[in-house]
Amino acid sequence: MKFLVRAFFKTLRLMLGPVMLLWEFITRPQGLVRAPALQAVVDQDCKSLVLYHYKTCPFCLKVRQEMARLSLNIERRDAQHNATHRADLVDAIGKAKVPCLKVTDSAGHSEWLLDSKAIMAYLQGRFAR
Predict the structure, then answer these.
(1) 82, 124, 126, 76: which is closest to 100 by C-alpha?
(2) Residues 37-77 pLDDT 10s
(3) Sheet of 100-104: strands edge to edge?
(4) Count of CB atoms within 10 A of residue 16's CB?
(5) Do 50 and 77 contact (CB within 8 A), yes or no?
(6) What HEC string does 56-94 produce?
(7) Pair 114, 93: CB distance under 8 Å
(8) 3-state SS assignment for residue 108
């Protein structure tokens, strides 16, 4: 029975995944337009951020849409298909839960935000006008 349930959900993900990626592409919001000097500062600030995500996770999709809306160039690491990124995530927080934003300060200390709402609130608070 367990095999059938897993097979069902795997098939469902395989069928819905491309639809979700197409939907993300079609509904991608216009990015926030900043002055070039200000955008350079934002890009520099984004170098301390890393998003661990799955490509077809609906919560990850919401975070990526917010990143596009705010014109943020944040490094993305696929924790589903890359074993190294998945291991980094499990070592840091104890499980492979996405979306997860790694925020590193200037001293090298890292903070991990685990909830899509918390990540979006952080990005809006730090980078919105």
Answers:
(1) 76
(2) 999 999 999 999 999 999 999 999 999 999 999 999 999 99
(3) 75-78, 49-53, 100-104, 110-113
(4) 13
(5) yes
(6) CCHHHHHHHHHHHHCCCCCEEEECCCCHHHHHHHHHHHC
(7) yes
(8) coil
Taking the C-alpha atoms of residue 13 and residue 75, their distance in angstroms, rounded to an integer, is 25
Question: Does the bond joining 99 to the residue before it have cis omega, within 30 degrees of 0?
Answer: yes
> Are β-strands 100-104 and 49-53 bridged in parallel, bridged antiparallel, or unpaired?
antiparallel
Q: Which residue has the tokens 């300060």?
A: 105
Q: What is the pLDDT of residues 81-115, one digit of tens each?
A: 999 999 999 999 999 999 999 999 988 899 999 99
pTM exceeds 0.90 for this model: no
Candidates 89, 120, 103; CA nearest to 49 is 103
Instruction: Kindly list the structural domains of the chain, giving each domain's residue range(s) and its CATH number in brackets, ordered by start.
Output: 2-127 (3.40.30.10)
Distance CA 48, CA 108 (A): 9
Pair type for strands 110-113 and 100-104: antiparallel
Cβ atoms of 53 and 101 closer than 8 Å = no
In Å, the largest CA–CA distance within the chain is: 58
